[in-house]
Write a structure and sequence with these properties.
The protein has about 270 residues and is mainly alpha-helical. Among the domains are: about 55-140, Cytochrome c-like domain (Cytochrome Bc1 Complex, Chain D, domain 2, Orthogonal Bundle); about 145-230, Cytochrome c-like domain (Cytochrome Bc1 Complex, Chain D, domain 2). The chain contains ten helices and two strands. It catalyses: a quinol + 2 Fe(III)-[cytochrome c](out) = a quinone + 2 Fe(II)-[cytochrome c](out) + 2 H(+)(out).
Length: about 270
């Protein structure tokens, strides 16, 4: 009986033992699956990259055609600048998106500065022009959406605006006059992207506020402040153009003094 039990135990052990090649087969299957997945991922990535590059190059080519037919007269055939207009090499996509996207360019006529007017290109054409100019040399790019959502710190933005911008644009962003026929435009109804682009490119008479002067988050805070005062009416009632003490003083001088003169004339006429 004992011999039979030992024999059956050995037989059971032999029956439950793996084949020597089973481990090798499992490893081979695992490597095959891993390698196939990796190859498929690389193939999809490799096919996506040339498509993106081709789309980008197509945009640059389209922008070049638009530039040569609309902008080269003033800025030169290769954007190198002329006696009538500056070079655009190194200004980046942000400058083009601001100037063309607000209608300031192309200019209708020479003047102290380019006024805002209806945009002459579609959004896709503006992007193509920006892509072409950006391809010439590195420069400020179009800002990321996370800085344009108006969810920054309005209080910090108000402080930054008062210190850096209010002397020209007015503390309420109503704009103001400068010298020699120039002016700081009002900032009401200006898109967040164009406000940000103006800060990093310094259009017209505006200085450049790079990331060392005002951080990207600081710029986002300024945008938040401007959107706040735009969406919240003045608690004092009629704003008189938000031009501050000049408009208020002129109002009082004309109407207040006029009322006093009229009252004086009326009293004099009654006394006679």
């Amino acid at each position: 009986m004992r011999a039979n039990n030992r024999t059956s135990t050995k037989t059971a052990r032999k029956g439950g033992r793996r084949h020597p090649l089973a481990t090798v087969a499992l490893i081979a299957i695992g490597l095959g699956l891993t390698g196939g997945a990796y190859a498929a991922f690389n193939t999809s990535t490799a096919s996506a990259e040339p498509q993106a590059a081709a789309a980008s190059q197509q945009s640059v080519d389209e922008g070049k055609k638009l530039f040569q037919s609309n902008c080269a007269t003033c800025h030169g055939l290769n954007a190198q600048g002329t006696t009538n207009a500056p070079s655009l090499i190194g200004v980046g996509a942000a400058a083009v998106d601001f100037q063309v996207g607000t209608g300031r360019m192309p200019m209708q006529m020479q003047g102290p500065q380019a006024p805002e007017k209806p945009v002459q290109f579609t959004d896709e054409q503006v992007k193509a022009l920006s892509a072409y100019v950006a391809s010439l040399a590195p420069g400020p790019s179009v800002p990321e959406q996370k800085y344009l959502d108006g969810k920054g710190d309005a209080a910090n933005g108000a402080e930054l605006f008062r210190v850096n911008c209010a002397m020209c644009h007015n503390v309420a962003g109503a704009g103001g006059a400068l010298t020699e026929g120039k002016y700081a435009p009002p900032l009401t109804n200006v898109t967040a992207a164009h406000i940000y682009e103006a800060m990093v490119t310094g259009p017209q008479n505006m200085p450049v506020f790079n990331d060392l002067n005002i951080t990207p988050q600081g710029k986002a805070d300024i945008i938040t402040y401007l959107k706040y005062i735009q969406n919240n009416p003045s608690p004092g009632g009629f704003e008189l153009g938000s031009l501050g003490p000049v408009a208020e003083g002129l109002f009082l001088w004309i109407f207040g003094l006029g009322a006093i003169v009229a009252l004086t004339v009326w009293i004099t006429a009654k006394s006679n």
